[in-house]
Amino acid sequence: MRKIITGAALAVLATACSANTAGTATPASGGTVVPGKGSTAVGFIFVGPKDDYGYNQAAYQGSQEVAKAFPNLKVITAENVPEDDNAARVMNSMIAKGAKIVFATSYGHLDAALKVAAEHPDVVVVQQGNLITGSAPPNAGTFFGTVYEPVYLAGIAAGRATKTGKLGYVYAFPISQTIDNIDAFELGARSVNPSVKTYAVNTSSWCDPAKQAEAAANLLKQGVDVITQHQDCTATVIKATEAAGAMTVGYHADASAIAPKGWLTGSQWNWGPLYSDIVRTALGGTFTGSKYNGNFRVGYKTGDNPFVQSPYGPLVDDKTRRLIEAAKDTLKSGSPFAGPVRDQEGKVRIPDGTTPDYETIEKIDYFVEGVVGSLPKS
Hints:
The chain has 378 residues and is α/β, with parallel strands linked by helices. It folds into 2 domains: 2-145 and 270-298, Rossmann fold (3-Layer(aba) Sandwich); 148-252 and 307-372, Rossmann fold, CATH 3.40.50.2300. The protein contains 10 helices and 15 strands. Residues 41-291 form the ABC transporter substrate-binding protein PnrA-like domain.
């Protein structure tokens, strides 16, 4: 992917579905506009609160890094923006205030983001985490990091630490990101503990503390002694696990402060540099198309990943740390999903000797061998 671009890596973010000159859009009235050029503000919408110890907090922190990097730009933020038409309304209000660069940071914001991009060809609209699968405006794109890679590494820590051989995973929805993370976590754990199992429980909500507490309690009753999650707000699960004397693997943000005894490690976002690259590219008028249909992904292979591994807790020994570092080096050219990979029924889904690309991984729709639980039917 990186070989097809010049300048900032984020120049590949827009879709290739337009026949127009890369980086430009043609409005109905004729003439040419350059998306993002001359923007006096940048907007960010978040699906939850900015202090959730999780996804939205990490995204908000990234927006504040943009404010520091571009002091002449007004940074406009909006919390608790639903994944419906309200998202389009909020983005339009930001555009009315001068934002020609808008970040829609939740998975379910994609439809609204594409709608707004179509209505405003002079505005760069980027969506965090979803995939554009059909035609789209040339001023729209998606981006994300291959976070299942550090999740795989965190699985190694969990597999080494567990005493019961039972790990727990509290997740929201069976979307591709979530399935990838659950599978990678189990694959990492099994790489050091072949008999370990991961018990997956869904809440059908990005942030419902009551459901999260119930899920954690049920997992603990089953003998699970390490719990991780894919929730936007993470504090409830972490605090419940810590109170029960069990161990925690974090996600989205560093929450080690609320689990001083049971914290192992985790995967957390560092969006500031990537957000800033996107803004810089848009302001420079070089937001261009790519053969990847606007679905830009970065990770250990690209070397500019927007995530970091969380600090280790006191229970992670030196041997585990060495195993994780060795696995991280392998991921720079390999994948957590390097074959053979089998599903829950033992069927080979990724053959031996095969290393799937990013697009293939984001289409995984099954749990791997060792995951206990079934995917909800849509």
